[in-house]
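Tetratricopeptide repeat protein
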Amino acid sequence: MNLKEYIAELKRRNVFKPAIAYLVVAWLIVQVADIVLGTFDAPPYIMKTLMFLLIIGFPLNLIFAWVYEFTPKGIKKTKQVEEEVTVSPKSNRKFDKNNKKLVVLPFRNIGSERSSDYFSDGLTEEIIIRLSGIKELEIASRSTSMQYKDSELDIVSLGRELNARYLLQGAVRRNNGDLRISTELIDVEKDAELWAEIYSGKMADVFEIQEKVSKQIVKSLELRISPKEKVALGKSSTMNSDAFDAYLRAREFLFRYTKSYLLLSIDLFQKALDFDEYYSAAYAGMSEACAMLYETHDKKPVWLEQAEQAALKALIYDPGSSEAYSALGLVYYNRNSLDEALLSVQKAISFDPDNFFAYWIRGRLYRMKDKDAEAVIDFNKVLELNPEFHSAYGDLQMSYEKLKDKEMLKDTIERAALFYPNYLFHKPEDARAHQFYAFTLERLGRRKEAREEMRKGIEINPNDLIIIYNAACFYAMIGDKKASIDNLKRAIDNGFGNFEYIKHDPDFYSLKEEPDFKALIQGK
């Protein structure tokens, strides 16, 4: 250990303060003793003995300060204190040295095409999945990470907000099959770069790069991993780069809900499976897309059958696939097998506590079982995990209305009112968001603006079953019963057949005694 390191170690162990304090107190004792002993004509050897004891006590004090430290919990060995808490020299604040939390920030797409965002986002998620299997490392969820895409917060502020010790950030450039990925691992508390690397290659090298980044993180943080965890770092759900690319593109369109986007995602999932017939994640995605298409647009039984088959295939190749179980839950939900659906989504959540889609399905199941108190917990969890999945705002409002919880209903409406303008600024083509914003505005008493947002939503996608159904709900809410029933009839005639949902939808409570409404759901 050189002199600088030795001095730094003395500072870290808080040796200097006790040493200075000891010298000051010893000097005071000598001064007082000199006066008192002189006054009482004490023998000279008493003063000499006192001086000798004080001199001997100084190195003993240093040794004690080196080994022990006073804490709010009593005297502890410095090593134990070090493990619990230390002080950042730059931020001058205490932090937990045992904090091993890592946040993988969304990789930036620095290519010429903005359409490649799906790839940089997918790369981020894949690295998170690889690292999440390491027990010694706390890794922030995919949904938490994605909330900080394009964040303007500095690194230290980000780390503090997320209570994370380490941040991984990176950038991706794709150009005609060439791939360039730059990465940087940062220690937030020290505000220092632990390592940085640039990886170049072809698209086929993407899996090797993901593995290298994951292993470098483990090495830099000196994590102890088991043989099983080491194998998991190098494991990928597919080793076909074309299948991986098609899968990521499919997931980009999956939750846009319109019929054309759902059909496009189904085609892309199939393309991924054409490249790799054992690709579990692609089967799970296919299952979700087919089940959603059946629920929202096309009541042909073949879609539910295809969804079920795809989910079961996904589970053959990956028995722990959370997405496959949540997709099965949606299949059973649409078959009105509510108990089977609940078991499936419970399984999905057990495998991935951050599966927002599973919470959303479970919340809807609770609402159909008239358990709205449980439903609101799940819908709030959805928004916590994925703030852009705005369907949950509408679900929350319906449940709070049913619970007659005016305070929470008001709070949810205000949250939605803050969310939608910014969301629609970035995604003005989202017809459902315009409609949900219309519901929010109506509940705030801004009917003229609400009608305009509803008009925009219908205009963007006038033949979409969900858009027509939402219009029926809106017109029922504002008291235009004829327009509501006309739109509901049109939705049913065009294939909307979830009559259990219609019966439990509080938007239609005002129509329950209307003969035309009764005729629509009679015997269903």
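thats it. The chain is about 65% helix and 10% strand. Confidence is low (pLDDT under 50) at residues 80-93. bye
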